[in-house]
Amino acid sequence: MIAHTNISCLPICLANGPIAKLRQSEAGSTALEFALIAPVFLLMLLGIFDLGHMAYGHATLNGAVQEAARTSALETGDTEEADDRVVALMKAVLPNAEYEFSRVSYVDFNDVGRPEAWNDSNGDGLCNNDENYVDENGNGTWDKDIGEDGNGGAGDVVVYEVEVSYSPVFAVPFFASLSDRRTLSATTAVKRNQPFAAQNGYGSSAGVCAADG
User: Fold this and answer.
1) Phi/psi at 58 (nearest 5 deg)?
2) Total Cβ atoms within 10 A of residue 55
3) This prediction's pTM
4) CB contact burial 65-90 (16+ within 10 A = b; e otherwise)
5) Which sequence spans correspond to the domains of the chain?
6) Could you read off the pLDDT of 119-138 as tens digits, one per residue?
7) Residue 72: which of 128, 153, 131, 8 has the closest Cα?
8) Are 155 and 192 in contact, with CB atoms under 8 Å apart?
């Protein structure tokens, strides 16, 4: 038996059929829009979370380092205990972090970062060519930074630095560089130790720099 198609009903059938209903449906277009927008929105959200986490970590680190620097400046201060306190305060924020601690001591604030006194006869900013210098920190060589490693003694000024490297908690997909292990900017605290004893000043022994500096 051969089926006959009623050609006269085609306009009505097309107007009321499933194809027309599909064209008029908004559900399909909404699903398509969501499929296009959702990945971009989620990436932006993860990026915002990552930046917020990094900012919060840096602020927490600043506070922890300042506290550790203050306790280390006391006569009874314990630098290892102070460092451990920084790690403990940061553990909840950056649980997988690694830390590097450094302390450099000076006699006064004006000495921070300065070189030992020398006769820079050639004006090149280095001690060389048999130029004379004052071995102020007593280590037998000219130093571009007069500071001594460690927490110093009574009345000394200490520069305390902590550097933290960690893996992001909110890894951003498709952006490998944003998921790599990163390092927070070094946080620095400059404090003067309590004057619990007489402060040792700098020495005045003379030295001569070699020709090659």
Assistant:
1) -65, -40
2) 10
3) 0.75
4) beebbeebbeeebebeebbebbbebb
5) 18-208
6) 999 999 999 999 999 999 99
7) 153
8) yes
